[in-house]
């Protein structure tokens, strides 16, 4: 896929959402469902790559770009990640001092809450694909509990789940 | 004390912004909140480049800017301290090293496709990625699960899940409906 088109598709996802993974359902809808240039497995690998790396959330989109169109795609993903951030400049210039209204804050907060529901919906097909048996289901559950209940690093989850995958191959 | 105060008022150069944001952004795991806490320490408490009020204003505007809040925050701080070149220096220093690592990991993942051992490990990581996504949703929801706010939070996020999963509504439409609902059903946090 052309990197310019990819940039605009990814920008559509980043510019309509307000936190890192919230753009994922839009990305999935466009690239996995509509255009079929990305698979659910690749999307999951992109999430894992993005979460393994320190730095801002939402970096998975760079990995998505690379899967779809190589290095130019990764650049398109990086640009799509950065572009909306510059929208803060007009806000700072014209709104600074005047606090934004509570209706706007409430709308933004509610949009982000609906993104939480959308992320769960987008995780369904991925779960069907990646959770092939009791072991992988246990890994997914353990990953969620570990990350949700402790403040520890995602790197532990990546290392542990990779190790369990290897152990399963030796055992099976 | 006076000398220290004057020294602290000096405007940072884009280069020193790049060093600070590059160091903190690329060495802090866990995304936005831990990173912004570390930046508060450096920008407000240690270096006094910003007052707590300036920091708070940029932080709250970053939350209503589309995209990753942390990146908008970097652009805002960089611009306030050193203009457009400051904004570019801060946001690029924070993003590019990590983005390069992500590309390398993705490349490694693709290159190892033929290796059965690597695929076994990747299968484990893909299962863990399901848990990571659910954690992403949980982290959005958790701060709203307080006595006064949980019913609204559960109805809105649960409603979005139903619209997307059962009615197969397009994600952008669901997000727009979510924003519309929030504009009229004001969060109890905002009515104080």
Structural class call of chain A reads mainly alpha
Structural class by SSE content of chain B? mainly alpha
Largest sheet of chain A at a glance? none
Q: Give the overall shape of chain A, derived from the CA principal axes.
A: globular
Supply the number of structural domains of chain A: 2
Spatial gap, N to C terminus of chain A: 39 Å
Q: Which range does the strand content of chain B fall in?
A: under 5%
Mean pLDDT level of chain B: 85
Radius of gyration of chain B: 21 Å
Shape of chain B: flat
Oligomer: heterodimer
Count every helix of chain B, treating DSSP H or I runs of 4 or more residues as helices: 8
List keywords for this structure.
heterodimer; A: 172 residues; mainly alpha; 76% helix; B: 192 residues; 0% strand; flat; disordered N terminus
Question: What do these coordinates show?
Answer:
The complex is a heterodimer of chains A (172) and B (192). Helices cover 76% and strands 0% of the residues of chain A. Chain A is mainly alpha-helical. Chain A has 2 domains: 3-129, no CATH class; 131-172. The model of chain A has no long low-confidence stretch (mean pLDDT 88). With 192 residues, chain B is mainly alpha-helical. Chain B has helices at residues 2-9, 14-27, 32-46, 52-63, 69-111, 116-141, 150-165, 171-184. The model of chain B is unreliable at 1-8 (pLDDT under 50). The interface between A and B is large, with 112 and 103 residues.
């Amino acid at each position: 896929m052309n990197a310019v088109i990819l940039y605009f598709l990814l920008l559509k996802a980043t510019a309509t959402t307000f936190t890192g993974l919230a753009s994922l359902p839009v990305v999935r809808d466009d690239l996995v469902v509509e255009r079929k240039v990305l698979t659910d497995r690749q999307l999951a690998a992109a999430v894992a790559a993005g979460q393994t790396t320190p730095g801002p959330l939402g970096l998975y989109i760079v990995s998505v770009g690379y899967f779809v169109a190589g290095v130019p795609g990764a650049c398109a993903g990086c640009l799509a990640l950065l572009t909306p951030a510059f929208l803060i400049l007009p806000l700072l210039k014209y709104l600074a001092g005047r606090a934004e209204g509570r209706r706007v804050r409430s709308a933004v907060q509610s949009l982000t809450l609906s993104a939480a529901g959308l992320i769960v919906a987008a995780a369904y097909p991925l779960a069907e694909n990646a959770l092939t048996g009791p072991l992988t289901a246990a890994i997914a559950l353990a990953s969620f509990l570990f990350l949700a209940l402790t403040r520890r690093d995602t790197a532990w989850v990546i290392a542990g789940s990779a190790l369990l995958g290897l152990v399963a191959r030796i055992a099976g | 004390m006076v000398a220290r105060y004057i020294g602290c008022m000096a405007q940072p150069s884009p280069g020193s912004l790049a060093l600070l944001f590059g160091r903190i952004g690329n060495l802090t795991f866990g995304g936005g909140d831990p990173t912004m806490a570390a930046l508060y320490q450096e920008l407000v408490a240690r270096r006094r480049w910003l007052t707590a009020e300036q920091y708070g204003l940029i932080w709250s505007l970053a939350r209503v800017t589309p995209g990753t809040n942390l990146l908008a925050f970097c652009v805002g701080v960089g611009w306030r301290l050193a203009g457009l070149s400051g904004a570019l220096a801060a946001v690029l220093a924070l993003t590019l090293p990590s983005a390069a690592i992500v590309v390398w990991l993705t490349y490694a993942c693709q290159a190892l496709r033929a290796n059965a051992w690597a695929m076994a490990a990747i299968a484990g990581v893909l299962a863990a990625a399901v848990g990571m996504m659910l954690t992403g949703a949980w982290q959005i929801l958790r701060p709203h699960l307080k006595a006064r706010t949980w019913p609204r939070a559960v109805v809105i996020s649960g409603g979005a899940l139903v619209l997307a999963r059962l009615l197969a509504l397009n994600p952008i439409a669901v997000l727009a409906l979510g924003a519309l609902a929030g504009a009229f059903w004001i969060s109890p946090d905002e009515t104080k």
